[in-house]
Design a protein that fits this description.
Helix content: 25-40%
Radius of gyration: 22 Å
Number of strands: 12
Strand content: 5-15%
Shape: globular
Distance between the termini: 51 Å
Number of helices: 17
Length: 479
């Protein structure tokens, strides 16, 4: 077993130790080299968005705050970082650390100093698109900051939330979802307007691959990695009752598997040495559990993958002092190191929870944490029960709509590789609205069902057809 484990570690870090320099450059040496090779006109920008709210989704805002701290540690000024977050967890009544947010069990506060550029329902799809494009005139509310980048600049975008087929979430009650065609159009338009030299985009969401598959051109200097492929869930991490667990007083997941992996890498690695490709491969192997995908997902790449040959510091300016010898294993999250060194099946058990079930997992642990026989415990159980009932009713409603509009082949048939979710995005958007008008909000869990409306549109059905089918499916049902 020890030999097998040693081989697994060797495969994960293939070639890394052999190529490691005896001594990395000092900060002064690295900065001097960076200045020599970079165009003085290049400016870095970052757009960070948490697309959810409520305590059960703690992890998305925690991820976002952690990303902000990475850029601040790298020396990027706040006027070049735009942060979109609902801002309801740090000072929420459920937080056992009032005014603080952590992204790993033994982690520091990542909330300190985070700008409140766009909070509450200023965190919405229209603002995200406008901010990304640099269109200050179209922004509503918030600080008014946008990614005002030019043709010489490099931009980093990170999004953390729930998702579905061709769709990304926004905080509950904050308007329409963010659709794949609008994301890709914003990227294409910004490139055409000489809005960046190169752009890197990291996306944490279920089915996040579907945001770019068949849609993102390879010739607009944009490189993307996603937490999952086009058809699967991503995963919450540092969840209660699991290994590794958050502090005992927390009843919610602290982070997301893909996101904490690339960010803990960025915290510890020498980003002036590590390439985007190297980071991708290691994140892919850790999150995919070395190809087993047991409580893990397929981390994907899209767009101009030639960009991945550049160092991470081209997008996240290097700040780490690498005057000591560079250890390629140091940035592997502690939990992943433990998994690699142990027997895989034993360590993988209960390590993560599916993204869509993480808030339900949190509700259950809220119930478990309350005193026996208390009103608080009864109230927590009712909340858990209400959510499970809502999900069951939503599942049934969507199944009835699908049965009314689609043949079995149309419903269960797989898309061809590289095909987008739909070509009729207007029908898809209106179809989702039609369903919600009859049956109530899909919510973050229900995003997985949005694909039924896309399939209906692909089969030639109209939003009016969806309205009729949903009206029949949801008579007397309050979702």
């Amino acid at each position: 077993m020890k030999a097998a484990v040693g081989a697994a570690v060797g495969a994960l870090l293939a070639g890394s130790a052999a190529a490691a320099p005896a001594r990395g450059p000092t900060v002064a040496e690295r900065l001097k080299a960076d200045l020599a090779k970079k165009d003085d006109k290049t400016t870095h920008w970052a757009l960070l968005m948490a697309g959810s709210n409520t305590w059960g989704n703690y992890r998305h805002q925690a991820d976002t705050y952690h990303a902000y701290q990475i850029f601040k540690a790298a020396g990027l000024d706040d006027d070049h970082i735009v942060v979109m977050h609902y801002d309801d967890i740090a000072n929420g009544s459920e937080n056992p650390m009032p005014g603080k947010v952590i992204n790993k069990p033994d982690g520091d506060d990542v909330y300190a100093g985070v700008p409140k550029d766009y909070t509450g329902c200023d965190v919405n799809a229209d603002n995200f698109v406008a901010i990304l494009k640099g269109d200050a005139d179209s922004v509503s509310g918030g600080s008014g900051k946008v990614i005002d980048s030019s043709a010489d600049d490099k931009v980093f975008v990170a999004f953390f939330d729930h998702g579905g087929p061709g769709i990304l979430g926004v905080p509950g009650g904050c308007g329409d979802f963010l659709y794949a065609n609008d994301v890709n159009k914003a990227l294409t338009d910004k490139f055409a307007a000489n809005g960046f030299k190169e752009l890197t985009f990291y996306v944490e969401a279920c089915e996040s691959g579907s945001i770019f598959e068949g849609l993102l051109p390879a010739n607009i200097s944009t490189y993307v990695t996603t937490a999952a492929n086009a058809d699967e869930s991503s995963w919450g991490y540092y969840c209660p009752g699991m290994t590794p667990a958050p502090p005992s007083e927390f009843n919610t997941c602290l982070g997301d598997f893909y996101s904490i992996t690339w960010m803990e890498n960025a915290d510890s690695a020498d980003l002036s040495v590590e390439t985007l490709e190297k980071q991708y491969k290691v994140v892919r192997d850790i999150v995919g559990k070395n190809g087993t995908y047991d409580q893990g997902s397929h981390v994907m790449q899209y767009g101009d993958t030639d960009i991945s040959n550049e160092t991470v510091s081209e997008f996240i300016p290097a700040a780490k002092d690498s005057s000591e010898a560079y250890d390629w294993t140091q940035w592997i999250p502690a939990s992943a190191r433990k998994w690699i060194k142990a027997e895989p099946k034993a360590a993988v058990k209960n390590a993560a929870v599916e993204q869509r079930d993480a808030d339900l997992h949190s509700l259950w642990h809220v119930y478990l944490s309350k005193p026996a026989g208390s009103d608080a415990k009864a109230k927590a159980f009712k909340a858990f029960q209400a959510e499970t009932n809502r999900r069951a009713e939503l599942d049934a409603a969507v199944a009835n709509v699908a049965a009314a509009l689609l043949s079995e082949e149309q419903l269960n048939g797989e898309r061809k590789a590289g095909e987008p979710v739909t070509r009729d995005w207007d029908c898809y958007k209106q179809g989702v609205k039609a369903f919600e008008a009859q049956c109530g909000a899909l919510g973050q869990y229900g995003l997985k069902h949005a694909g039924v409306m896309a399939k209906a549109c692909n089969a030639g059905k109209t939003p009016a057809d969806i309205t009729v089918a949903a009206g029949k499916a949801c008579v007397g049902v309050a979702l």
